[in-house]
Amino acid sequence: MGANTVSITQEYPLCVTSNYKQPNVLIAQEEIYNFFLKIVNQMSPDDVLRKFKTLFIDGLDSQESYYVPGIYKIFLDNNEHEFCNTLKRCIYIIINTWKTYRKDKYIQKLVNLFAIEDLTVKVKNFPALNICKSWLENFINSRDYQEIKLFSAKHDELYKGHWANRYTSYLLVAQSVNENNPREQQEAARKLYIQIKEKFKFELAIYIARSQSAVSSTTRYKNPSILGDNVLHLIKSIVLKRGMFSHENIANIFIKQTQGQTLEKFKISIEKYLFFSVDNQQLVKTLRQQFAENLFLWKKDDHQEIITKELFLRTCNRVIDCLTTENGKEPSLLFILLLTQGHSLTLVIILLKTILICRNSRRHLETKIAHLIRYYEQYPEDECKWVINFMEIFNIAFAIYAENVEYNLIKMKEDQSSNPELNLDGYRVFSQMKVDRQK
Predict the structure, then answer these.
(1) Which of 89, 185, 297, 419 is close enough to 181 for a disulfide, judged by CB 3.0 to 4.6 Å?
(2) pLDDT the model gives residue 420
(3) Secondary structure of residue 22 in the 3-state scheme
(4) Run of H or E residues at 405
């Protein structure tokens, strides 16, 4: 044993000694967390893996009568939930530290420790040991473990398998804001979310640049979406609105004009703002009626309150709820109406306009998107094409308008029509870094 090795027996006598007495669970948990916080910063990754395996896995194949692996004794009083919480937080303490120091290959080794074949084989006359094996088996089959596996996968592997895997970044947002998750999980999820988002933003910019170059080979650039070659036309359509009537300028005007309004007047203003310039007027009429009725009933008794920053934020969050999911489980009626009738881009633009007036609502929106993914992931890809189409457009639109890269549409041929919508092929998209003025 190396000089830097910490003795498990010295650190946790209450976990491994035979003369065991039930400790206070909370005290024991804090000791365990502090133990892993200490060794993950002091020991080599291989040594940390060995210590982790010693505490949580070794001994489950024992044939000794009445044997129970030390750490499990803390929770044997029918406390499987606390055991799983402890195991999960220890894993994220390790993952968070290794992510910081870019030791990703060891995260895969950590995940692989749970590839245990004989957990389902119960040992006759050893009920306590069988309970321990069942707990670990249940954990391996849980959503918690599936979320842990996200941190061990390479970027390209995240997109393999189920169609919902392409939108892992939104599931990570939901993890990062869930206060029921340990803080180490929230932090690890936030870091991986940023990493995935930055990679998509970079790949989109590179794709746009190289796909418009006559000297670029199609094998040298990657389309980060699954929309095929049509994505460039979509990007141009989204970028088209610039200048005096850009989404950003209209958003800034809206913010200034609604200062000092009552909640009732603000609801009317935001309805007009969101549905202004939507192409399909018949659709607008139907949507605005349902949207207005829904929003009007929300906080109706507070209609005479003056809009504050907090109330502004809460109202924008309510708008997002109306357009995505109101209960965090099933999609809203407006969401279904828009997407099933082929108006994904319309919904994306309305959501985008909401974020442009309230950047602080973005995390709320992305969490709602995660809830929608969880709802639809139970269905096969063929039944979710309209949802997938929405997700792809959403990713592109928010990369263009809500990030720190500015996209501009430039006319390349002077003899083209003055109306760019008539011939987008005569225009090219250029990108450059911009300063984010609003946080």
Answers:
(1) 185
(2) 52
(3) coil
(4) strand 405-411
3-state secondary structure of 423: coil
Cα–Cα dist 225/248, whole Å = 24
The pLDDT assigned to 231 comes to 84
Dihedral sign of CA atoms 315, 316, 319, 325 in order:
negative
- For 106-128, the pLDDT digits (tens) are 999 999 999 887 777 777 778 88
Given the structure tokens 């939108």, which residue do they identify? 167
Please give the C-alpha separations between residue 145 and each of 103, 178, 236, 252, in angstroms, as whole numbers. 20, 16, 41, 44
Confidence of residue 414 (pLDDT cuts 50, 70, 90): low
Q: What is the DSSP letter of 429?
A: E
Which residues on adjacent β-strands are paired with residue 407?
A: 431
Interval 148-170 mean pLDDT: 85
Q: For residues 185 and 171, is the Cβ–Cβ distance under 8 A?
A: no
Gap between the Cα atoms of 114 and 145, Å rounded: 10
String of DSSP letters for 251-263: HHHHHHHTTT-BH
Alpha-carbon distance of 368 to 170, in angstroms, equals 9
Task: Report yes or no: 358 and 312 within 8 Å, Cβ to Cβ.
Answer: yes
More reliable by pLDDT, 5 or 174: 174
| Residues linked to residue 431 through DSSP beta bridges, in sequence order | 407
pLDDT band at 223; cut points 50, 70, 90: confident
pLDDT tens for 347-358 read: 999 999 999 999
**CA distance linking residue 302 with residue 306, whole number of Å:** 9
Over the range 398-426, which residues count as b (16 or more CB within 10 Å of their CB) and which as e? bbbbebebbbebeeeeeeeeeebeeebee
- DSSP designation for 292: H
